[in-house]
Amino acid sequence: MSMNSQPPVRRGADRPGPLLRVLVLLVLVVALAVGLSTPGGSALATGPGAAPDVRPAPAAWTQAASGLEQAPVAAPRVQARAVLLADEATGQVLFERNAGSARAMASTTKVMTALLTLERLDERRVVRIGSGPPQVGEESLGLREGERLTVRQLLLGLLLKSANDASVALAEAVDGSEAAFVRRMNRKAAALRLTATHYVTPYGLDRPGHQTSARDLARVWEVAMRRAEFRSIVAMKAARLPGGPLSLRRFVTTNQLLGSYRWTVGGKTGFTNRAGRCLVASASRGGRRLVAVALGSPNAFPDVQALFEYGFSKFVRVRLAQRGQPVSTAPGRPATLQAAAAADALVRLDQLDQVRLFVPPEATRGSGGGAGTGSGPVPGETTEAGGGAGSGPGQTGAGSGSSATAWFTAAGRRLVRLPLAPIPAGGAGPASTLVPPTTGANGAAAGIGGPSGTTLAAGPPVRPWPVPPGAASPTIDPTLRRNPP
Questions:
Q1: Does the annotation count 110 as an active-site position?
Q2: Fewest CB within 10 A of the end CB: N or C in the chain?
Q3: What span, in angstroms and rounded, lies between the C-alpha atoms of 67 and 354?
Q4: Which among 125, 210, 213, 230 is positioned nearest to 169, based on CA atoms?
Q5: Of 140, 161, 162, 282, which residue is the catalytic one?
Q6: For residue 339, which of 350, 352, 328, 355 has the smallest C-alpha distance?
Q7: In which element (H, E) is residue 249 found?
Q8: Is the pLDDT reported for residue 36 higher than 90?
C-alpha cells in the first residue's frame, strides 16, 4: 500500500456494533425503570404533589435501593493473632479478630510512654542522663551517663528508633524512677478504661504480666494522636541527634509503612519473641481516617496495609435515619416513637441491603407501642467482625441522653445507635428534607430510611441514603475517636 492510499472502508462501519447497541438498550431500560419508580411514573413530574427534583445518588446507594445484589466482600487477609480496624472520625469498628484478648505488646508500649511524657514535660526541657538508661539492653541510642538531650530528642529516639534507653531516661525525667513511672502508666490505663492492659516496663521487653489488647492499644494510640507533637514525630521518616563532640546519631523510623504505603500518617512498631511483630498505625485517604492494630504477626506491615485497603475500599458512609423520623416497633404497627437524632454509619458494600433496625422492648414501655420484637436480640461481640461496632464500654450515639435507644445492625453486627423519643401529641417533629421520599401504595414505606414522611420499622431492611454535605460524624465509640466528642 502506498503512503497516499487510504485503508479500505468496511461495509457497515458507520453503523453501531452489537456491543454499542446493547449498551444503548441498557441505558434505555435503566432510564425507564427510574421513571417508573417516581410518583406518577414520570421522572419529570411537576406541579402539586410531584416528587422533588433530586440529584442522582452514587452507585452504591442506587444498587441498594433497587435491590441489586452486591458481590461478596472478602475479609482482609491478615496473619496476626489479634487485629482491629476502626474509623477515627466515629470510633466505629470495621473489622476485628481477638481484639479484646490480652497479648504481649513489645515496643508499642512506648506509645503510652510518649503520651505521659508529653502530658508532663515541655519538649524543650533538657534531660541529664542518669545511670539507669545505659543499663537497658536491646535497641538503644547508646546514651551515656551525664549526657544531656532535650525531651523532644529523646522522644525521637523513643518513637522512631524504638530506643529502650530513651524510655528509661524519659521515665526518670517524669517521675524520678522507672518504677514510679510504671505506676503512672497503669493509673493512666485505668483512667482510659483499658481493661486488658498492664504495664511492667516503659519500653516493652517481655516480662510476665506486661500485656495489652488490640482494642486497648488502638485507644491509647488515638489519645496520643490528639497531640500535635506526637503526630509530628510519628510522621517522620528519619532523624539525627547529637552523639558527642564530633559525631551524630542518625537513624530511620522502624515503621516501614511510611515509605511503602503512601496514605500512612504515622505508626509504632514492636517486636519480641513472645509478642511477635506488632504495629499500630493511622492512614488517611479520601477524607476518611482509619486506625489499624496488628499483634502477634509474622509480618505486621502487610497485615495493617490489608486492613487499611479493606476499610478504604469496601465501606461507604450512609444515612440510615433522619431526626424526627417516625419509628415503629414492627411492620404494620403504628409509630409511637421518633428518631431523636440522625444516624449515619459506614456500611460494607455487600451489606447495604442487610441493614435492619432493632428496637429493644424496654424502648417502648410507656409509649403504647407494644413489645419491640424487631429483629430479635441484638447480637453481642463476636471474635471477628465484617463491619460495625461492638458494644464495648463507653459507646454512645448522638443524643444518647434521650429516653430510649435502638440499634442499626448489618449481618448480625451493631452499626450505630439510634436515640429515640416519644412522638409528641401533634405528630413527629421537623426533619431534614435533603433525602428524597420513597412512597408505596399507602404513601409510606416501612423499613425505608429517608425523611420524616416515611416510617422506620424494626425488622425489614432499611434503605441507606446519601449523607447530607457537612453532616457531623456521630460518636459510635468515643474511646476510639481521634477527636473527643
A1: yes
A2: N
A3: 10
A4: 125
A5: 162
A6: 328
A7: strand 247-252
A8: no
What is the per-residue DSSP string for 267-283?
EEEEEETTTEEEEEEEE
Q: Are 411 and 386 in contact (CB under 8 A)?
A: yes
Please give the Cα distance from 426 to 75 (Å, whole number): 47
Q: Region 411-429: what's the mean pLDDT? A: 82
In the annotation, is 188 catalytic? no
What is the H or E stretch that residue 33 is in?
Answer: helix 18-37
Phi-psi category of residue 317: left, alpha or beta, with phi > 0 → left and psi -120 to 50 → alpha: beta
* Global pTM value: 0.78
Q: Which of 2, 37, 66, 110 is catalytic?
A: 110
Annotation says 162 is catalytic = yes
C-alpha–C-alpha distance, residues 418 and 396, integer Å:
9
Q: Identify the helix (H) or strand (E) that includes residue 289.
A: strand 288-297
Q: Give me the catalytic one of 2, 42, 101, 107.
A: 107
Q: Which residue has the cell 410531584?
A: 50
User: Coil, strand or helix: which one is 233?
Assistant: helix
CB 325 within 8 A of CB 456: yes
Percent share of the chain, pLDDT over 70: 70
